[in-house]
Amino acid sequence: MKLSRLGYSIAAIFLTIATFLPLPVLAAVPVAAIADNNGSSFVTTAVDRVGAAVVRIDTERTITRRMDPFFGDESMTGLPQQQLLRGQGSGFIIDRDGIILTNAHVVDRADKVTVILKDGRSLEGKVQGVDPVTDLAVVKISGAKNLPIAQLGNSDIVKVGDWAIAVGNPFGLDNTVTLGIISTLKRASASVGMTDKRLDFIQTDAAINPGNSGGPLLDAQGRVIGINTAIRADAMGIGFAIPINKAKTISTQLARGEKVVHPYLGVQMVTLTPAIAAENNQDPNALFQIPEINGVLVVKVLPNTAASIAGMRRGDAILEVNGEAIRDANQLQDVMENSLVSKQIQVRILRDGKNQLVKVIPKDLNS
C-alpha cells in the first residue's frame, strides 16, 4: 500500500522526534551475579575455594607382551618383553590427612601412583580401594598433613541449567578450568554406552577431556557436585560426572579397603511400554510376542546368575519387585542396587499371559 504525501510527512515527523529521544535503558544484570566487589567472577571465586585441593595423579604400570623379534608385532610365540605404561588423571582431597577421591579407571592396576599437589609437591600415593562398577577409587598420600580439602555439595539438589565448573588436568595441562551448565540429570550409564557400570550420570557441556577424569565438577559456590569421569568419543561438548552423593556413600568403605557389594539379578533388559510392544507384535519377523504393558522386558538371562538359578526366561516381563511396581529398566537397576546380596527378593513377572511370582536370591556383581 502506498503512503500519501500527508502520510510521508507524518512519518518524517516521527522519525525526527525519535532521532532526538533518548534510547531505552536496558535492565542491568546485577554485578553480584557476575563479579564480586573486587571484580572477580563467580567462577574465580568458586575455583579459589577448591583449587588447592585438586591434584594431578600420575600412574605407572608394567606389562609383559610377547613380541615378534623380526617384525615387532605382538605374537603368542614371540619373546616376552616388558613395557612401561604411563597414565594421568585428576583427583581432589576430601580429608586433611591425605584422602583423595578419583576415578577407578585412573588408578586401575597401577604399580606406582604419584600425586602432584598444586603447590608443586610430589608425593607417593597408595590405592586404598577401587570400585569398577561405579568407577570410583580412593587414594591415600603420605608425608603431608593439614592439607586443603574440597567442600562436598549435595548432588540431589542440582537442577538442569545450573552452572557447572570442571577443574582438572586435561592432556597434562595442570589446573585447567572450564565452564558450562548442567545439561541433564540421571543419565543412565547404559544409555551412554557404559553397560558395565551402575550409575546415573550428571551430564554437562563443560569441556571434559582426557586427564580431567577424577577431577571435581563444581557448582557456582565452589562445592563439589560430581566427579568428572567420561566423554563421548562420538559427540562434541558432552561430558559426564558421577554425582557426589554416590561417592559419599561408598568412599568410606573404599578408604578402609573394603569391597563394595553390588546386588545383581543377571539379566539383559529393556524398558517395556505398550507402544514398544505393539510395534514388535506387528512385525511378522518378531521372535516372540510381547505383552503390551509397562514394565521391563527380559531379553537375555545370563548363565550362572541369580535370575537363571531362579528360572527366569527371555521374554519375561518384570512387573514388581517386593511389591514395588517397576516402570523402567533404570528403576529396576536402582531397586536391585538397594537390595541385599543373598537375601531373597520376590519378582512378579508376566509369562505367557500369566502372572507368576519368582523368588530370586541376588548375587554380587563383582563375584
Query: How many structural domains are formed by the residues?
Result: 3
Strand content: 35-45%
Counting helices, strands and paired strands, the structural category is alpha+beta
Strand order, sheet with most strands: 1-2-3-6-5-4
How many strands, which pairing sense, and closed or not: the largest β-sheet?
6 strands, antiparallel, barrel
Unreliable spans: 1-33
CATH H-tier superfamily of the largest domain: PDZ domain
Write down the CATH class of the largest domain. Mainly Beta
For the record, the CATH architecture of the largest domain stands as: Roll
Q: What is the element string, with H for helices and E for strands?
A: HHEEEHEEEEEEEEEHEEHEHEEHEEE
Residue share in helices?
Answer: 10-25%
Instruction: Name the average pLDDT.
Output: 83
State the CATH topology of the largest domain.
Pdz3 Domain
Query: What gross morphology would you assign?
Result: globular
Distance between the termini: 82 Å
Number of strands: 20
Number of helices: 7
Rg, alpha carbons: 28 Å
